[in-house]
Amino acid sequence: MTDGAVVESARGQTRARIIRVAADLLAQGGRQAVTTRSVAAGAGVQAPTIYRLFGDKDGLLDAVAEHGFQSYLDEKVIRPTGVDPVDDLRAGWDLHIGFGLANPALYALMYGDPRPPAASPANAQAFRVLRAHVRRVAEVGRLRVGEEHAVNLVHASGCGTVLTLLAMPEEHRDPALSELAREAVIAAITTDAPTLQAPGPVGAAAALRAVVDETENLTVAERGVLKEWLDRITAG
């Protein structure tokens, strides 16, 4: 191993140790417990090391959120897709709710601040998982609204459900609330049968929009125009 590789390996180990310490502090005491001083003491490093590796405290918190959510994805969410993509969407909802209730401080870190998904690597990854679920529903012609509308509705409803449940004393949480919210959202965005079997342009547009990038006999520019038209149709 070259000297450069040794340095890089040591840097990676230090970074991982800092993230683990910060994650433990977050779980135990919430966001306010994750101070530069407490993390540096727990990880056995000087404060400048944290700034050098993460830029600032927000960079460290983003790394903690990404690590925590990625660990959850590796253990729970990445699973073989089922026959029914709507059932997979239900399962994804349940996993999201379970993740939030099991990791309240981490969830608040990811979703408590109204930031665009791209501003947080963990949030961006969560959106990619959700978009994949919605895309499969669209591909089989069972989406009654545009993909972006569906993604945003599921996301908003799921986050609202988790934050509402977290605000309740644990012993007073209504276990039926998540299921009722989930089924209301699914009823709003999906159909019982493929929309291609029913009249109306929206379902057909949503299904075509889901697979338009697979069309090889159109140029990139033509696909872009077609996407714009299809988005306008599904937007109503």
From TrEMBL:
Domain (HTH tetR-type) ranges: 12-72
Classify the source by domain of life. Bacteria
PROSITE patterns in UniProt: HTH_TETR_2
Q: Which InterPro entries match?
A: Homeodomain-like_sf (IPR009057), HTH-type_TetR-like_transc_reg (IPR050109), HTH_TetR (IPR001647), Tet_transcr_reg_TetR-rel_C_sf (IPR036271)
Keyword Lipid metabolism in record = no
The ranges the UniProt entry gives for DNA binding are: 35-54
Keyword list, A-Z: DNA-binding
Asked if DNA-binding is a keyword of the record, the answer is yes
Question: What Pfam families does this protein map onto?
Answer: TetR_N
UniProt name for this protein? TetR/AcrR family transcriptional regulator
> Which species is the source of this protein?
Pseudonocardia aurantiaca
